[in-house]
Write a structure and sequence with these properties.
By secondary structure, the protein is mainly alpha-helical. It is 59% helix and 0% strand. The protein folds into two domains: 68 residues, no CATH class; 70 residues, no CATH class.
Amino acid sequence: ANRKNWPMTAYLNFHIENGKKEYQIVKAMTKQYSMPLECAIFLLAGGYSMWRETRNDFKQGKFKIKSLQRCNEIGASLMFMKNNFNIRLTRSFITAYAVVSEHPKFKWERFKTALKSKSALLLRGTNTEDFVRVFDKIYNGNVHNKINFTRYFLDREYQDDEEGDDS
């Protein structure tokens, strides 16, 4: 079969049919957390976007899960936002949240509390940088010791150990 032009979901199903456990977990994550396949892949791979190498490994059946706990933690927070504030979990939204939530000083409880009064802001983003700015606004609303997530994102401080990024 010529698999050259298959969509990623076709590779996913092909490798599941061939008994690959990792791929069953990827599929379970997409269902459990209502996230696009690509997002589940890069979160499980430990990244913030789909690297060429990760995509190639995935297609070839060599994908390895590096961070299941991370995907579960981010996924649970995303589901909280989706269920409570009717958010569409797009790739930009998920990437932005992954970046912000992994800032060393980020605290989920503080963010969750801030969301109660500022959730309308969640509807204002269209790309990753927009959403980082939105999360920044929500998180830092009217508190001291603010965290500059936007600067953190723009300086790509979260990416110090990443290889090439082709997204």
